[in-house]
């Protein structure tokens, strides 16, 4: 199950629907854990207890939510916020036809999330500008590259400047307040860092579905999308990691598609042309060594390696030298 509901919420839901006292619910959860020889989390055991009592957990978490409370697997999500950034529609095509996709980032006072508009909904992006108030109804949540996205399909509604809502403007920290020394970064921070690239790792390319951008699996007869079936001409996703050093510390920066293109300052077409020429890729990587870049993004823990990483949301490969010098001087005084 993709859905992750905190244990307290599951227990509260069971209590509300079954009328059982909390102690009894926890007793049943512990009993399940014992029965399954501890091979299950408390949340997992709580799901099973709810299931046995015929209690649906899903509809308890649809409806109006603040952005920070949006969870993977949610459906029928309603939320409101202000637009931060708009990514205009682009075309894609597959053997089953063509379509359009657009997206924007939506923020409220609790956080921000990327909202993805498919096909007929994508045209709505033309009417969106940063700062615009919007209400979303019946969105569904998908997780991609470890980040949550709110997707809109033909059933979903996007209402611009909803008349029945008072949506506050969002005051986000300005660029100077976001800037942090690498040594002070902690898991969960959203920040901007500036430093020198000291090591660049190999490019990694992987096949994705042209329609939904999910990662494809290699089947016996070629690539397969979980949702769209066999894909004869896949698109490619890609990752590039590098170390950034700012004198206070070093951190691994993880760049996906858009950030890779920003960093290299090339188009996706150009990158796709040289995708399989190792030499050219090596030249690109070497050219990055010693470069000074500004990276915006967030810090997260890589569970596999017990280290923190900086997941880039945007990369500026050409910082203004005068601005950076002025900043350095003001820090010393
Ligand atoms: Zn697909």
Task: Walk me through the structure.
- With 333 residues, the protein is of the alpha+beta class.
- The protein folds into three domains: 7-57, no CATH class; 63-160, Nucleic acid-binding proteins (OB fold (Dihydrolipoamide Acetyltransferase, E2P), Beta Barrel); 175-332, Beta Barrel (OB fold (Dihydrolipoamide Acetyltransferase, E2P)).
- The protein is built from eight helices and 16 strands.
- The longest helix is centred in the N-terminal third of the chain and has 14 residues, at 22-35.
- The mean pLDDT is 86.
- Bound molecules: zinc ion.
- Zinc ion is lined by residues 209, 211-212, 214, 225, 227-228.
Comma- or semicolon-separated keywords:
OB fold (Dihydrolipoamide Acetyltransferase, E2P); 3 domains; five-stranded mixed β-barrel; five-stranded mixed barrel; 16 strands; globular; binds zinc ion
CATH architecture of the largest domain: Beta Barrel
Instruction: State the shape.
Output: globular
For this structure, what is the CATH homologous superfamily of the largest domain? Nucleic acid-binding proteins
Alpha carbon gap, first and last residue: 54 Å
- Low-confidence parts: none
Characterize the largest beta sheet: strand count, sense, and whether it forms a barrel.
5 strands, mixed, barrel
Helical content stands at 10-25%
Number of strands: 16
- CATH fold descriptor of the largest domain: OB fold (Dihydrolipoamide Acetyltransferase, E2P)
The Rg value, from CA coordinates, equals: 23 Å
| Order of adjacent strands in the largest pleated sheet | 2-3-4-6-5
Name of the CATH first level of the largest domain: Mainly Beta
Number of domains: 3
Strand content: 35-45%
The overall average pLDDT, rounded, is 86
Please count the helical segments. 8
Q: Structural class of the secondary elements?
A: alpha+beta
* Small molecules held by this entry: zinc ion
**Elements, N to C (H/E):** HHHEEEEEEEHEEEEEEEHHHEEH
């Amino acid at each position: 199950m993709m859905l992750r509901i905190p244990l307290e919420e599951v227990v509260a839901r069971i209590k509300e629907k079954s009328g059982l006292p909390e102690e009894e619910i926890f007793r049943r959860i512990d009993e399940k854990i014992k029965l399954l020889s501890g091979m299950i989390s408390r949340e997992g055991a709580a799901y099973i207890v709810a299931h046995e009592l015929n209690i649906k957990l899903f509809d308890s978490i649809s409806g109006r939510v603040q952005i920070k409370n949006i969870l993977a697997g949610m459906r029928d999500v309603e939320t409101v916020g202000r637009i931060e950034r708009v990514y205009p529609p682009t075309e894609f095509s597959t053997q089953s036809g063509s379509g359009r996709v657009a997206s924007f980032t939506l923020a409220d006072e609790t956080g921000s999330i990327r909202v993805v508009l498919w096909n007929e909904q994508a045209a709505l992006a033309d009417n969106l500008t940063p700062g615009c108030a919007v209400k979303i109804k019946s969105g569904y949540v998908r997780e991609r590259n470890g980040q949550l996205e709110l997707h809109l399909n033909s059933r979903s509604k996007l209402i611009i400047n909803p008349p029945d809502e008072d949506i506050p403007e969002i005051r986000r920290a300005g660029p100077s307040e976001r800037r942090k020394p690498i040594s002070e970064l902690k898991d969960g921070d959203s920040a901007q860092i500036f430093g020198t690239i000291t090591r660049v790792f190999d490019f990694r390319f992987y096949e994705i579905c042209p329609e939904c951008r999910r990662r494809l699996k290699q089947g016996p007869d070629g690539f397969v999308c979980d949702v769209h079936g066999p894909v004869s001409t896949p698109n490619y996703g890609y990752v590039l990691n590098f170390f950034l050093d700012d004198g206070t510390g070093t951190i691994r920066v993880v760049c996906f598609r858009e950030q890779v293109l920003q960093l290299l300052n090339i188009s996706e077409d150009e990158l796709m042309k040289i995708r399989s020429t190792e030499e050219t890729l090596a030249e690109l990587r070497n050219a990055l060594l010693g470069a000074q870049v500004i990276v915006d993004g967030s810090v997260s823990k890589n569970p596999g390696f017990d280290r923190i990483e900086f997941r880039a949301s945007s990369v500026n490969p050409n910082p203004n030298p005068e601005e950076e010098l002025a900043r350095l001087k003001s820090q010393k005084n």
